[in-house]
Write a structure and sequence with these properties.
Helix 1 packs antiparallel against helix 5 (121-143), helix 2 (57-67) crosses helix 5 (121-143) and helix 3 (76-83) packs across helix 4 (87-99). The protein is built from six helices and three strands. It starts with 24 loop residues before the first helix and ends with a helix. Strands 1-3-2 form a three-stranded antiparallel beta sheet. It has helices at 25-53, 57-67, 76-83, 87-99, 121-143, 148-167, and strands spanning 73-75, 103-107, 115-119. A hairpin with a 7-residue loop joins strand 2 and strand 3 (115-119). It is mostly helical.
Length: 168
């Protein structure tokens, strides 16, 4: 909701709830630019991956995280946490990758209750084939559009947001 200072709603504080601190016009503009920009960026990156590699952005990110892990293996719960996905969403993504032969699920050796996700050689090959096009798309749609200072500011801002959300 956007309001001018002369139209600022005055929510009730009878129940001890803090009054809403409405966004001013500049904040509202930045918030909407963030929403639309991130949606369009994710859409462009997803289309490129689907077109060139037959992978979704979520599938690509799973493969990246596995490729960076010892033995190309991560516990499913840790994979979900690292990607900020729900357990059910990561399960569906991994199921698609498993059906394509790109990953396999295995019982966790250290804990019989846990499940690990392991990237297969075929998964590594698919990631290596997809990475150049994806990196080019990231450059085209984000890195090369921003100045170094803007890119640094975006990274620092999103790190602050992530850390605040992780603290609760």
């Amino acid at each position: 909701m956007s309001t001018s200072s002369s139209q600022t709603p005055t929510p009730s504080t009878a129940s001890g709830v803090e009054p809403v601190r409405w966004l001013d016009a500049e904040q509202q503009g930045h918030w909407r630019a963030f929403l639309v920009g991130t949606a369009r960026l994710q859409d462009a990156l997803g289309r490129q991956l689907d077109r060139d590699s037959d992978l979704s952005l979520s599938e690509y990110e799973v493969l990246v995280r596995l490729s960076e892990s010892p033995d190309r293996t991560l516990r499913m719960s840790l994979l979900a946490d690292e990607l900020a996905h729900s357990r059910s969403r990561i399960t569906h993504t991994v199921r698609r990758l498993e059906a394509a032969g790109l990953v396999e699920r295995q019982a966790c050796d250290s804990d019989g209750r846990g499940v690990n996700c392991h990237m297969t050689d075929a998964g590594l090959a698919r990631l290596e084939a997809a990475a150049p096009g994806h990196v080019q798309a990231v450059r085209t749609h984000l890195v090369d559009v921003l100045t170094d200072d803007q890119l640094r500011a975006v990274g620092e801002a999103m790190t602050a947001v992530r850390e605040a959300l992780e603290r609760g």
